[in-house]
UniProtKB/TrEMBL annotation:
Domain Band: from-to ranges: 203-362
Record-stated family: Belongs to the band 7/mec-2 family.
Localization in the cell: Membrane
Record InterPro entries: Band-7_stomatin-like, Band_7, Band_7/SPFH_dom_sf, Stomatin_HflK_fam
Name of protein: SPFH domain / Band 7 family protein
Species, as recorded: Polystyrenella longa
Length: 433
């Protein structure tokens, strides 16, 4: 038997044969063979946004809806977002769904809740809707807030200001919110935090070298002085500058100084000043370059001291000039946070003609000294001979011994044989020799 079925324009028909879904009947008049109750038609209004049916899975897999409906098949561990006319309306769990797309515009998106964080181009709307509240943990950070996120007891990310969402259906999420009231960041898990891929976007890592001090300025004002070591600063919190100051002993070479002495002799000299930073803040604050300022001050003092000293005095007492240089620089250096340890003249270079003149003067002095020494030695020798002659004259026995010593000395070098017989023979031999 044939049965006429009329389907309106805002309806569709579901044709079942032996209680199994057969096909979709579009709007219009249809004749359906209903003998023995094998075929039946269910008329469904498309004004209802979602098609709900006990055989929805078969209907969705068998029917060809075209643009008439949106089919959604949501797998395990996934969620489907459904927008109707641009407004988020539904969040769907695992299952099969059909939404009529005839009277209202229906769009969808599948999200994987196995991911730790929920990434979406319009995350703020998702959070505001409240439809995902039972599935996600929301982190909303203000401008001076940062957060550390642990997922399943493992550090996952460090977050800057903004809104974030994390799936908590399959993960254990723990969030630590940090107020960035201090520029410096310290944490018991610092080493692990710095290994995160996102750490380089949130932190500046600064090393203050051994033997140095770090002078920290925050927003243009002095904040603190840091000892040697590693420090971690938040990015995008405050403007800061860190000046590293070497606290070790340093040497300042003052080279190539052409200076005229009091007696109008121009000489070139190289000096050295040894200093040490004792106040890192003053060293970094008072002058743009305190070392360069010390160089200029030492240069001027050196010119003044040499300019009022004669060449001979200068060459004979360079140590005095070095001591005066230290004394004159001491007070000025203290203004820059420095302490002068020592100073000295390293090299003195005289003009060519002056060097020749000094060499001749030195040569004459040395020759005179050598001549004087020679005369002194000759006088001493003559005086010794006179004393010996007087001694021998007054002592004949000593004279005889002297004669015998002379003969012994002669006999050692020759084959001379001397026979002493008659009296006076020895005297004749001595006179002959």
């Amino acid at each position: 038997m044939l049965k006429r079925v009329k389907i309106k324009k805002d309806e569709v028909g579901l044709l079942f044969k032996d209680d199994l879904f057969e096909r979709i009947l579009p709007p219009g008049t249809h004749w359906v063979w209903t003998a023995f109750g094998s075929n039946r038609v269910e008329v469904i209004s498309t004004r209802e946004q979602e098609l709900k049916h006990e055989q929805i899975r078969e209907i969705a897999s068998e029917a060809e809806f075209g643009d008439l409906a949106v089919k959604l098949e949501v797998d395990a561990h996934k969620k489907a977002l459904v927008w109707i006319n641009g407004k988020l309306e539904r969040v769907l769990d695992q299952g099969v769904y059909l939404f009529w797309n005839r009277l209202k515009n229906v769009t969808s998106q599948i999200l994987d809740e196995r991911q730790t964080d929920l990434v979406h181009h319009d995350l703020a709307q998702l959070i505001k809707s409240g439809l995902l509240d039972e599935y996600i943990q929301v982190v909303d950070l203000k401008d001076r807030q940062r957060a550390l996120v642990w997922c399943d007891e493992r550090l996952f990310a460090v977050l800057s200001a903004g809104q974030y969402a994390f799936w908590r259906t399959l993960h254990d999420i723990r969030v630590e919110v940090i107020e960035t009231t201090s520029l410096r960041f310290a944490h018991q898990d610092l080493e692990e935090i710095l290994t995160l891929p996102t750490a380089k976007d949130e932190f500046d890592i600064v090393e203050v070298a051994q033997g140095c001090a770090g002078v920290l300025y925050q927003n243009g004002k002095y904040a603190e002085t840091l000892n040697s070591g590693r420090y971690v600063f938040w990015k995008r919190v405050d403007k800061y500058q860190l000046f590293q100051v070497d606290l070790r002993e340093s040497h300042l070479d003052i080279v190539g100084q052409d200076i005229m002495t009091e007696d109008k002799v121009t000489l070139r000299m190289n000096a050295i000043v040894t200093y040490q930073v004792v106040d890192a803040v003053r060293f970094a604050t008072i002058s743009e370059s305190s070392a360069q300022a010390l160089y200029r001050a030492a240069q001027l003092v050196l010119r003044e001291l040499v300019g009022r000293t004669g060449l001979d005095d200068f060459l004979s007492d360079k140590e005095s000039l070095a001591n005066q240089l230290v004394e004159r620089l001491h007070k000025r250096a203290a203004d820059w946070g420095l302490r002068i340890l020592s100073a000295g003249v390293r090299d003195i270079i005289l003009p060519g003609e002056m060097k020749d003149l000094l060499n001749r003067v030195t040569e004459a002095k040395k020759a005179a000294e050598a001549n004087l020494i020679s005369r002194r030695e000759e006088t001493a020798a003559m005086r010794s001979q006179v004393n010996t002659a007087k001694l021998l004259e007054n002592n004949p026995t000593l004279m005889r011994l002297r004669e015998l010593e002379t003969l012994e000395a002669i006999s050692k070098n020759t084959n001379l044989q001397v026979l002493l017989g008659e009296s006076g023979l020895a005297d004749k031999v001595v006179k002959m020799l």
